[in-house]
Design brief:
The chain has 111 residues and is α+β, with helices and mostly antiparallel strands. It has two helices and six strands.
Length: 111
């Protein structure tokens, strides 16, 4: 169980990788992810899922991945089940980004 909750994540907190690289700060917070705007590290905006968070301490979010791993992930679009129910392309995309899957029969309790 993580030692943080979604309420600990808010705009302006800096986001760091597991190898201590500063990715930037949180611009927006969503139910399933948060937005880091493009800048020095990312060439495009990135929506990082909460599942990628290792810890949240004061004004710092620590991710479970290195800077190289974060650059390789294609989190340029926010997963969005609410508006794409039944869309197989969107569901495939969302599942690949660690978003909660409302149709996941292998984990009905969403734990």
């Amino acid at each position: 169980m993580p030692n943080w909750s979604q309420h600990d994540v808010h705009p302006h907190i800096h986001v760091y990788t597991s190898d201590n690289q500063d990715l930037g700060h949180i611009a927006e917070v969503y139910e399933d992810s948060f937005l880091v705007r493009k800048g020095f590290f990312f060439p495009t905006d990135r929506y990082i899922p909460y599942s990628a968070i290792a810890s949240v301490d004061n004004d710092r979010v620590q991710l479970t991945m290195t800077a190289d791993e974060a650059k390789q992930l294609e989190w340029e679009k926010r997963p969005n089940y609410e508006e794409h129910l039944g869309d197989p392309t969107q569901l495939f995309y969302d599942r690949g980004h660690g978003a909660e899957d409302p149709f996941d029969e292998t984990n009905p309790d969403k734990t």
